Every structure is written in C-alpha cells, then in structure tokens.
Amino acid sequence: MKVTNLLISQPKPVGDSSPYFDLAEKLKLNVTFRQFIKIVGVSTKDFRAQHINLPDYTAVIFTSKIGIDNFFRIAKETKYVVPETLKYFCTTEQIALYLQKYIVYRKRKIFHGKNSFSDTIDALKKNIAEKFLLVTSDVSSNEIPDFLNSVGIKFDKCVMYQTVSAELDDLKPDFPNFQVLVFFTPAGIKSLHENFPDFEQGDVKIAAFGHSAWEAVEKYGYRLDIKAPTEEAKSMPAALEQFIIANNKRK
Known about the structure:
The protein has 251 residues and is an alpha/beta fold. The chain has helices spanning 19-27, 44-48, 65-77, 93-98, 121-126, 143-151, 186-195, 211-219, 236-249; strands at residues 5-8, 30-33, 37-41, 59-62, 87-90, 109-112, 132-137, 155-165, 180-183, 205-209, 226-228.
C-alpha cells in the first residue's frame, strides 16, 4: 500500500518550521496532527489520598510547567499558603522562569539546570537537609528519582496531574484513510486502543518512538512497523522518510 496520508499523534507544530512539514513537502504527503492524550490535574480528593502534607516540605522540584500550575492549584484548593521561604528546584531555566506566574521571582531561592537537572547537583548538596517534594505525573520515568537517590536527597513523590486519553470522535470519519499512524508514548497507543476498539491494523503501518512506546504497541496487540530512534534513523522524521521512500518505490 502506497503511503500518502500520515497521522501524527502530537499537536500541530507552531509556525512554519517543522521536519514533518519538510517531509510532507519532499515526499508529497498529507500529514494530519492530532493529540491523542490530554493532561488533567488530580482532584483534591485524590491528592489527599496520597497523604502528602504540603507544609511539611521546605523545597519542591518541578519538571514541567504543568507541574507548577497544578502545585499552586492544589495549594489554593487546600488553603495552603505557600511560604516565601520555600525553595524551588527546576529541571530547566524555562520552567524556573514560569514560576513568575505565581511568585515574586527575584525574592525566592530558585535553582535550575542548564542542560539537565543533574546540573543542580551542587545546589542540591548544599540544601541536602531540606525536605523535598517531587511534583510529578502518573506517568513518569525514574531518571530524576534515581538521580536524587544517588545524591542522597530525601524526597517524596506527589502525583498532581495525570495523562488520560483524549476523545477522538472528530477523527473517526477520516481514520480509515491513514496508512501510517505515528506514536511517541505508551499513553498515545492506549488512547488508540480505547478510541478505536474495533481497529484492525491490516496494512496500516504503526510507527513508535522509544522503547516504552515499542513495548506498548506489542502490549495492545498491534504490529510495530517503524521504529525510532535507531542507528540508521535517530529521529522519527528520519525513520518515516526511510520507510516511506522504500515502501513507495515498491508500489
């Protein structure tokens, strides 16, 4: 089956610059972008079920802007007044600067990584006596917890937001027209399974990025046709280009 229509399970890139736009132009493809997942904050009830008492913590770790939004939302809903003495550790400067939405930035103790969270190691060691709260989602890697443990930081994890399947009813009429479906997370593949329970893969190709996504394809009973990253294709656009050129030459 010749590939002409791709479905990318991500939001459409902002602006005119994207490797997917370049790929579509180069290979004369129709590319549709549609987010298969959405992020929602946990309820106050679910937060309290974790037995986290916010006043107990003297430092908080953020890995995303969504985490910041939900921390301050939960604080408001639980009537917790965030003290000026609270210390903030962020994975990047961009995330740290987002704190300005909620606090007077220059009057707070804020630390952030330059290229990765591990850049904060010196600041963490100087504040090792603090009690840390790691704000996270229900789907997260062990990279930061493992790093904190290696430094000797004592911390508690708190799930303040979660990834759920988006409703894709608007996509259903066009769904049979796609020859390639592209995924980046296990949650996206779960959403495919939930939104299209009668989907039979047949000749449709599934592309997935990363080991966890590859495993999810198999878990839900689908066939993985295109993998990235690999030695031959470090990115998903590169993997798609290689596959589509080879595939369409045979047609």
